[in-house]
Amino acid sequence: QQPVQSPQAVILREGEDAVINCSSSKALYSVHWYRQKHGEAPVFLMILLKGGEQKGHDKISASFNEKKQQSSLYLTASQLSYSGTYFCGLLVTDSWGKLQFGAGTQVVVTP
Amino acid sequence: GAVVSQHPSWVICKSGTSVKIECRSLDFQATTMFWYRQFPKQSLMLMATSNEGSKATYEQGVEKDKFLINHASLTLSTLTVTSAHPEDSSFYICSARGRGLGNEKLFFGSGTQLSVL
Q1: Can you tell me the distance from the alpha carbon of B85 to that of B2, in angstroms, rounded to the nearest whole number?
Q2: Which chain A residues have a beta carbon less than 8 Å from that of B102?
Q3: CA A68/CA A66 separation, integer angstroms
Q4: Interface test with B, best of A30, A40, A50, A57 (most B CBs within 10 A)
Q5: Which tens digit of pLDDT belongs to each residue from B85-105?
Q6: pLDDT tens digits, one per residue of A32-83
Q7: Helix-, strand-, coil-residue percentages of chain B, each rounded to 5
Q8: Which of residues 87-106 of B touch A (CB under 8 A)?
Q9: A32, exposed or middle or buried, with CB in 10 Å at 0-12, 13-18, 19+?
Q10: CA–CA dist A12, B77 (Å, integer)
């Protein structure tokens, strides 16, 4: 089942912050975050494997609340290069480790 | 870092023809490869999962006779869209997971934009 992402889109000025949320109706094993630019393949940002874990990638960080079955991605002091569509992916705990992606959050950072 | 090469980047074909898309892991052994399909401004929808040497596992609603997947080696998986029709036009992306690469991280190919006339 597809995770639920919110918001669908966000427009930021350079330097502003934003939060993207991802929630699941199922128990989460891990959460993946990817960013995709138009016409390109998704690029890996980070994986969160443990409940409560927080990780960072430059000024992009994420948290994982296993109990609430949700994860949040934090864009801090956004840069123009942060523009793109962000997808959360949830690991389905079967033998193949399939990732189910959310609908995506389009982020536009303006000068 | 690990690289996944996908070819072709884009292809235009006539309705009724078949198109083959290749996905290669260049510097690691891809134990599992995933094929996704993406419509404009939509999410990546998992089509099938393939493991080297075994039959692909298709997601519900994906026609296995239409989307043939072959994972003949640890570095190559192919997706063949048979008898393509305009509704098959989409962005197809492969991804791979390899041994000893953090176990869960996916490496994506650059995608193939298929346009069926």
Answers
A1: 34
A2: 47
A3: 5
A4: A40
A5: 999 999 999 998 876 555 567
A6: 899 999 888 888 888 887 666 667 767 899 988 878 888 999 999 999 999 9
A7: 5, 55, 45
A8: 93, 97, 102, 104-106
A9: buried
A10: 40
